Amino acid sequence: MEDKKLEIFEVGPCESAYQMGFLIGKRFSDTIKSRLHTDLVLRNELLPFAQSPQSHPLIEALCNNNKTRFPIYWDELVGTAEGSGVPILEIVLINFRKEILPFLQKEVPSSVDCSDDCSDLLLVSDNMAIAAHNEDANNALVGHTYLVKGKLQNGLSFLAYTYAGELPSCAFGFNDHGLAFTLNSVPPTNDEIAAGAIGRNFISRDLLESTSLENAIFRIRSAEVSVGHSYNLIDVQTRRIVNVETASRYRFSVSEVGATPFFHANMYTHLQINQVQDPNSISRQKRANDLPKESKNDFLSVLGDMDNKKYPIYMTGKY
User: Fold this and answer.
1) Which of 172, 227, 240, 273 is most buried, by the most CB atoms less than 10 A from its CB?
2) Statement to judge: residues 86 and 229 lie in one domain
3) For residues 313 and 319, is the Cβ–Cβ distance under 8 A?
4) Is the per-residue pLDDT at 152 higher than 60?
5) Contacts of 218 (CB under 8 A, 6+ apart)
6) Is pLDDT at 180 greater than 50 in this prediction?
7) How high is the pLDDT of residue 140?
8) What pLDDT, in 10s, does the model give residues 231-277?
């Protein structure tokens, strides 16, 4: 797909979550279909696995548990599928890809590298508060993202950078309560993952409706997650930034960001669990530690750094 201007869609208030999802799906139907058609992880890994009998208990558990925990967002997901005119199974698979892939890989070695290599650099000092994020994800997402500006019946508005076909937002977003967030994937080992538990996309969708920093933390830690995640929460009203790392079995750790620049790649930094040692993240962390971080321009330079040819901080869509 050729590069094009990022589109924004204003939607709501709607009569139901299903209607909101339907309108988003209808508006971006071509983009969603194109993403699903070109996503090699979906075509080569997830769909073949979904046709196998051993996949059915896992997928059914994910659907049932997330529908029970977040029925409104489940309706929104179903609406997105029906509005875009694509099979609900494909929408389910891309929204639960991180919760499914570890179990798929036990059966078949993955032939597609689907790393998400986003990096964040955060700081809160007396004279400067910065949350900087670069968005390096799967190559199938190039040209397949959009902005959703949603308004809910209770009057809350949010803006979410959205991967085509997925719930807003598994990348970053903010709302008119002054609460913003960015996300980093993290790699727990397979023995740290709870099969069929709550998906990260549903938790980040819930974050868009947070009323405060404390409320956002509550929403994160109260869900029984499957694989875990890293959340960078920004409260504009109180001028605070915290990093929250989560894992299955309700494990979480909160780290307040202060005057020392805090860099987060795609590994756990303060929650103590078994994790895959990712040479990409280790390299990015080391490089970020070596670079100056005194000004806003320095922060942008760090997240745009390509000095390491194999593992640059800014991947530019390698995958």
Assistant:
1) 227
2) no
3) no
4) yes
5) none
6) yes
7) 78
8) 999 999 999 999 999 999 999 999 999 999 999 999 999 999 999 99
Are both 29 and 147 inside the same structural domain?
no
Q: Characterize the bridge pairing of strands 229-235 and 240-247.
A: antiparallel
Domain boundary among 50, 70, 103: 103
Percent of the chain with pLDDT over 90: 88
Which pLDDT score, from 0 to 100, does residue 304 have?
94
Alpha helices in the chain (DSSP H): 17-27, 29-38, 40, 47-50, 56-69, 71-84, 88-95, 97-107, 200-207, 213-221, 279-290, 296-303
| Domain end (from 103, 134, 161) | 103
SS3 content of the chain, % helix, strand, coil (to 5): 40, 20, 40
Same domain, 174 and 289: yes
Report the alpha-carbon distance of residue 232 to residue 209 in Å, rounded: 15
Q: For residue 286, what are the domain limits?
A: 118-304
